[in-house]
Amino acid sequence: MASKFTTLLKPLTIGSLTLRNRVIMSALTRSRSVPTNVPNDINLEYYAQRARGGAGLITTEGTTEWQNAPGIWNEDQIAAWKKITDAVHTEGGLIFSQLWHLGRVSHPDAPEQKASGMPVYGPSGISARGGKFRFLPGQPGYVTPVALDDPRVIIDLYRQAAINAKEAGFDGVELHAANGYLVHQFLDSTSNKRTDAYGGSIENRARFGLEVLNELVSIWGSKRVAVRLSPSGGYNDMGMPLQENIDTFRYFISQADVLDLGYICLVRYIPEFDPMIDGNHRATKHDVLKTYRPCIKNSPLFLNGGLTPEEANQLIVAEEIDAAVFGTLWIGHPDLAKRIEHSIPIDAKLDPKTFYGGGPQIPYEQQKKGYTDYPAARL
What we know:
- By secondary structure, the protein is an alpha/beta fold.
- It has helices at 41-52, 75-90, 111-116, 152-167, 182-187, 202-220, 242-258, 288-292, 309-317, 328-332, 336-341; strands at 12-14, 17-19, 23-25, 57-59, 95-99, 121-122, 146-147, 172-176, 225-229, 263-267, 276-277, 280-281, 301-304, 323-326.
- Helix content is 31%, strand content 13%.
């Protein structure tokens, strides 16, 4: 049976890369790199399954100091990622490494944070509200971060991560500038109260993220670098008054687009990422695609956030977006792109309890549950 999603399934050329379709796999934190932060054979099978399942491009989970997230800061991690990128390429896929720094929403008692030897940094000494570290005793909340004295220290870490990603055989890198993590914290005036060149005006608050992007481009070239943004905020206590929010993100997106990136991924407002804080929803709810589409003239636009294949295909036909980024659908359907191609139902019963790994104390074989044990459809 011919698929009705012909445009979604069309190849997309980005610089020297050709994506076999426009069904993109989002970065998804799954916390299965046990016992430490070195990618393991379970991670390898997980990514190989999704490449085998037809993903046009895979974006890895963030490579950061989160619990059992697969890092990219040492030689063991680089070597382990090389096995994964080789497996993805063997299946005809492409894979970008997502570079992620938690900023103020890490915790000093988290094992990975302790191992880094660094304090919990933020743009300013302002803690996020809400949130609990469920993997730590007593489930503590956020702490007041140490204001970064010299942001170049962290920018240099991003640069090194980009170098490491290249050594590990990735096809490019995506900067995680969404969901209230460090780049987003610099952008948002509620978390950034600096009075130096990295705070105050919109141009100054955008400086950190744009300098990171420029460093990544210096290593990879522009078409192998991407950025992910969630302008509606909410998650991790992000969000400014509507007009300030719009002005800030229009500026940042326009400046990022001047770099002619591999893609700019915009995340739409997602109710599940809009927490109640002090009795009110935290997000600055607005139409992300309509508001920022005019700012993007050079870079392909990817859209993420509650898309169905039907809506994604329509948006690509209308030339509103260039590709569609799916997250949750890839969890239960390792062959999502092939299901779309062959009109096979997308009907897996997901178990949210297995979205994230339970920590290194969970037996290795049990880490596979809800991760690599969802079956592919018979074609």
